[in-house]
Amino acid sequence: MFTNRKELLKLCTLSGTTEIGRNCNFVEYGDEIVMIDAGYSFPGQEMYGIDYLIPNVSYLKKNKEKIKAILITHGHLDHTGALKWILPELGYPPIYAGGFAKALIEEKMKEYHMLDKVKIFGVDRKSQLRIGKNFQATFIGINHSIPDAFSIFLETPNGNVFFSGDYKIDLTPANEPQTDYDKLRQLRGRIDVALMESTNASNPGKAPSEKEIFENLTELIKRQKGRVVVAAFSSLITRLYSLIEVAKITRRKIVLSGRSLDQAIDIARKKRYITAEDSLFIKEKDINKYADNELLLLCTGSQGERFAALNRISLNEHKFIKIHKGDLIIMSSSEIPENISTIGRMTDRIIGLGADLIKDTIDLKIHSTGHGNQEDMKMMYDLIQPRTVMPIHGPLTFRYFNKQNFLKWGMRDEDILLTDDGQVWMLDGHTWVKGKKVESKPILIDGLGVGDTGDIVLKDRKQLSEFGMFVTVLNMNIKTKKIIGRPRFISRGFVYMKGSQELLKEIENLIFDIHHDWEKQSQDNTNIKLDNFKEAIEKELSKLIYKKTEREPIILTVII
Length: 560
Ligand SMILES: [Zn+2]
Ligand SMILES: [Zn+2]
What we know:
Bound molecules: zinc ion
Helix content: 25-40%
Structural class: alpha/beta
Strand content: 15-25%
Distance between the termini: 77 Å
């Protein structure tokens, strides 16, 4: 089908390689580029005030006239969330996405008043697209935790790349067809490299089917005489489908608590993935009009997020939902490791209010991951049998263990490539050779600002949050260079002033010493300025304060 075979195929694992989130890769051939996904990630706890991190697209920006398309594997924000910022920078290249992802993206674009500029086209399980002069993209239906999730097979005149996307092999999916095994099998012998997600690479066995979760939840809720409150991720649309079916079977009305849940269910109903009469849903303020055994409450906040519904319920701060004896709280979710202690404190409060609590356990599965375990991964591998693989979508440890899986399944060490963010690879015959890296340091998004929050601002925020601030105010006669009166000190979050008189006395003495030296120096040398005095105070004070307190507050000097 292709005639132009002169060029080398280039693949760049730009972002989302070394962690979960912020997915963005691209393939370049000749004067054309196709991108796959454009997601964001959430900052680590040390990044104060940062809302999102997005992929660094400087290389793509420089080559924006080459970009022919952005292909989207599925609608989760770690694969689509950066579009808002990236599209204007890249001149709005066309987007191809499955129906559900398309609806979610359009909703966001409407929110940002960008919908009129965005060119977005829907794809389905039959889609095969010619893109530019050099690319052909095949979308292959898979199962994940959101409808219309795809693996993507991208062909070029000189080599083909497979993107697994997020997937699991669900033999009994909730409300969608199974993975398209035939189509995957047809790729055997044609994949030069497969980028394979690694999220659950260390989990043995198979990921539980959504049907099993649905059945367990139905049994559990059927037995309850009181209200049932279920905490679930609003991004796991397949679970929301299951829960709404459970409500129908158990004859309970649904109360939605949390904006992201409202939005998710709204789109799922519009796309007719979830079918439910309006009368199935009741408003939070009306819950007291119904008997306890007629209610199923769905909440956000399974991770103990401060302002999410379940946490507000646990704090007894929720306007309409007050826990009472007989309520059952079901956590139909996993616990993200860094949230475990927060979730623990929240469930402590819930139990303290008299409710019963059920969490997901091996004996009773009420949550299933959307990412395949080792057996799912092996099934995928057996189906496609790629020449080489690159484990992606996870820290090096996850990807290292995923590499062990592929070795166990018979791949050769040299055919399993551990790549990095920004790494460019070129296909030379049958071998992938490393090229020069492109810029890949993530861009920080702080509120409405893009990339205007650098490392220095972050360092300040971190320092402030850990050690507070210490300000010295000096009254000075600028002409005579004499300090008038005694220095004044202001502390915010550093020390309690009244209890620190000894330290303050030492600081005061140090300041007078520094002043004395500076005064002498400035008499001999006219280059010595007031700024040098300020700098010296800040430097020497931080040394003294660290020595005495082992703390590093932000130190400021104000001269008036
Ligand atoms: Zn996903
Ligand atoms: Zn993902």
